[in-house]
Amino acid sequence: MTDDAATVFADAKAYTDEPRLHAAMAHLRAHDPVPRVDHGPYRPFFAITKHADIMDVERDNNLWLSEPRPVLTTAAADDVARAQLESGAGLRTLIHMDDPHHRKVRAIGADWFRPKALRDLQTRVDELAKRYVDRMRDIGPECDFVEEVAVGFPLYVILSLLGLPEEDFPRMHQLTQELFGADDVEYRRGATLEERMATLLDFFAYFNELTASRRAHPTEDLASAIANGLIDGEPLSDVDTASYYVIVASAGHDTTKDAISGGLRALIENPGELERLRREPELMGTAVEEMIRWTTPVKEFMRTAAEDTSVRGVPIAKGESVYLAYTSGNRDEEVFDDPDTFDVGRFPNKHLSFGYGVHFCLGAALARMEMRSFFAELIPRLDSIELAGTPELAATVFVGGLKHLPIRYSLR
């Protein structure tokens, strides 16, 4: 049973079957919290299922390195990515980097996500939240909430922050779906590795043009800050610049879309909690944290041991990799009371959805702001809401959530 349970980490379809997924993870936490997973087409790894162990790995970024295997990809994709980077090409985002280079690159965009910058952005986010709730009202009484509402709101926020033209937003959405949806037949561009890599090449072609434009004619936006960022007095490499854009433009909206849509589904399926939040709007902050824990849009990151070590008594040799199972850590019974209960007043809520340590999500505060604004606008205007069909989850081993959420509602 333990061997069968451990295969969920290497099975994209497992994330579309929540009862199976959470039962398997609960079994592993209780009986084999650091299983070795050897399940093709992936190279072997150790899954870290306990909250405390995940935090310990995240804390020690000298022992546990992001390079050369920051996320779970197939052995073939690992080899291609490594060859591309060795040749000066390929994707190298913040999640691929280790300190001290990581810290220097992160600093280029950090000011755009600090409290002062976000306070300046609050009015715009509130305006966009109202626009998308109004849109929801106008297209009602039924809609696919993911496709018609949840995608557009955070996409508009982050791409506006970057300074991209609105006519390019659909293209960015499609490329993001293809990038994170490579394991989902509805989202992926093709079945072969070459077809999937073409998505990344399209991203790079777009952002290389953007870099040239912003270096020639800087503007007051995040794209200009990235294009003209300096490391030790030198411009970012072309790879690092394009990769910076890719992670901000894709993860900067797609993960928030997953949390918003999954959060709404949780409220629909737990009407008592929806009514509680309606009666006690001061719970919005804790409700948003619970939605983020509940959905866990980023399922995992990988780390590689820089020297021989162990986790919970399990020996892990230098060069071997661990899989940080955030979805499992966010349901750890030793940390969360009744972890399988959705509780809008949950406090404390030490979820791991934004990571921990030096790689803590750069855009976490923005995501929280967007979610608070959206639900603060939506919930007082809702007269009724229910599912109008079966929710559909994306197949993934990295980032994902709902791809369809059909709802029926009455909205003022």
Automatic annotation (TrEMBL):
A Pfam family hit: p450
MF-aspect GO terms: cholest-4-en-3-one 26-monooxygenase activity; heme binding; iron ion binding; steroid hydroxylase activity
Cofactors: heme
Keyword Phosphoprotein: no
InterPro entries registered for this protein in UniProt: Cyt_P450, Cyt_P450_B, Cyt_P450_CS, Cyt_P450_sf
GO biological process, one term: cholesterol catabolic process
Keywords: Heme, Iron, Metal-binding, Monooxygenase, Oxidoreductase
Record family assignment: Belongs to the cytochrome P450 family.
Protein name from the UniProt record: Cytochrome P450
